[in-house]
Amino acid sequence: ISGNASYRCSMSSSADFSDEDDFSQKSGSASPAPGDTLPWNLPKHERSKRKIQGGSVLDPAERAVLRIADERDKVQKKTFTKWINQHLMKVRKHVNDLYEDLRDGHNLISLLEVLSGDTLPREKGRMRFHRLQNVQIALDYLKRRQVKLVNIRNDDITDGNPKLTLGLIWTIILHFQISDIHVTGESEDMSAKERLLLWTQQATEGYAGIRCENFTTCWRDGKLFNAIIHKYRYGICGVFSLHKHKACFFNF
């Protein structure tokens, strides 16, 4: 009896496995876009299939997506850390690891105090409760200044969440740094990002074949960076010709 039960069990497992194979083949023959095959983006039957086959092993496309995202985060982390330290040095403080050194909220509060000139309260204890409270003080202060914080909670920063920590610092930069930009021709209802885009368009006006329409695709070939550098530091970026057929670019 036990042998028959074992046989039925193995047959059932193989049948389930083949059904999933058939389902995956019928679900579409088009190749998934990079990122669609990441484990957390897969449909339930595909996640089950990977477990049966021995775990969620990343394929080359998935590894490439994660590698690019990781490199981007490293660049942002390094850039944001330098920006923070430029301001914290005024109060003799320093951040070594962006994700770790903001967790207790003290450096975050100090940064906001330097940027705003205001004095904020803070908890002096070292328990998790005090850390959460300090981060919440910083978040509440930003909300009072009408800074939009999307899905960022105090425990995200206290737990050292990389993505949300980077998102918080970028939001602070947008509000305190870029919001101070004033451009000829701006309107009162323009956001800081829109004013920065307008400034970029004005700075690169007259450079053949260059037009800044966004902060993504327009920057990929490096020409916009070169045009801005050439505009303000002529000797660094080589020779630029304003004639369409004689433009000489030194890309990064």
Automatic annotation (TrEMBL):
Domain of life, source organism: Eukaryota
Calponin-homology (CH) domain residues: 74-177, 190-252
InterPro entries reported for this sequence: Actinin_actin-bd_CS, CH_dom, CH_dom_sf
Gene3D superfamilies recorded: Calponin-like domain
Region (Disordered): 1-56
CDD domains xrefs: CH_DYST_rpt1
One MF annotation (Gene Ontology) recorded for this entry: actin binding
Keywords: Actin-binding, Repeat
One of the Pfam families matching this protein, by short name: CH
Name of this chain's protein: Dystonin
The organism of origin for this protein: Ictidomys tridecemlineatus (Thirteen-lined ground squirrel)
Lineage of the species this protein comes from: Eukaryota, Metazoa, Chordata, Craniata, Vertebrata
